[in-house]
Amino acid sequence: MNIQDQKHLNLQSDKSTGSLSNQDDDVTFIKESSVKNLLNWTDCVDAMESALVAISNTSQNSETEPFSSQTPRTFTFAGNKGVLLTMPGYASNYTLNSVTGSDKKHSTLSCKLVTSFSGNSQLNPAIPGILGTILLFNSDTGKLKAIVDGTEITAWRTAAVSVVATKYLYCDLSLKNLDGNMTGKELAIVGCGTQGRIHALAMLNYFPNVFIKVKLWNRSLNRAEKLKKELNALFPEIIIVIADSSILCVAGAD
To answer: CB of 191 within 8 A of CB of 199?
Structure first.
């Protein structure tokens, strides 16, 4: 989500985004359920591809080329209970082709906050041990513009980077130098937790009609069975199987 295009950030007003206010001068809050409704794989992959281009530029100030500035994350320990991580970053002169075309340049100033408290699982009711929040600022004034639940975005972000890598390091090479065929492929997912699940969804959604089979493996069978059930419902045309070991899961996979 791009802080420069505040209309896009506020496109649903209070009811769908959970915003505190839809006025431009106020801070918008986007809760997790609304984040899920706003995200799509085309835009996420496009955004991560642009981010990788910006990061690859060693300059931290360019008038025309994409660039970024990102300092090392900081760790603030809350005694022995948990830790707060801060992850600030700035990206400029990047494009979002799927959203605004190739001509409009964007800039984003943000800071991701992550807390990790292992005791959260023992609470009643339990809450996730790792929680994320993203602060978005106006990149021209530094004014806080939005607070976004970061848990779902983090999962999508990680999978979107994998899609970009697959797009260029596998798909392009396969089409140009290998078999020239991007159908009938087999996907292996080792680990069926949050990242395994979101990677399966990312690959199957972004590369439609490419995979005919998905093999899953997880240390505990019930988590693999849960993901298998979900994928069967979403992609009934694809064969979903659970492998007996991680070695068998990746054997023969593309």
So the answer is: no
Q: Is 236 exposed, middle or buried (0-12, 13-18, 19+ CB in 10 A)?
A: exposed
Buried b (16+ CB within 10 A) or exposed e, 187-205: bbbbbbebebbbbbbbbbb
Question: Of 149, 168, 198, which residue is a domain's last?
Answer: 149
Q: What is the radius of gyration, based on Cα positions, of the chain?
A: 20
Q: Containing domain of residue 124, as a range?
A: 6-149
How many distinct structural domains can be found in the chain?
A: 2
Q: How many Cα atoms sit within 13 Å of 156 on the Cβ side?
A: 23
Q: Look at residue 229 in the predicted model and tell me its pLDDT.
A: 98
- pLDDT value for 63: 78
CA pair distance 137, 88, nearest whole angstrom: 11
Is residue 162 situated within a structural domain? no
The pLDDT value recorded for residue 174 is: 62
With a cut of 70, list the residues of the chain below it in pLDDT: 1-25, 173-181
The answer to whether 113 and 89 are in contact (CB under 8 A) is no
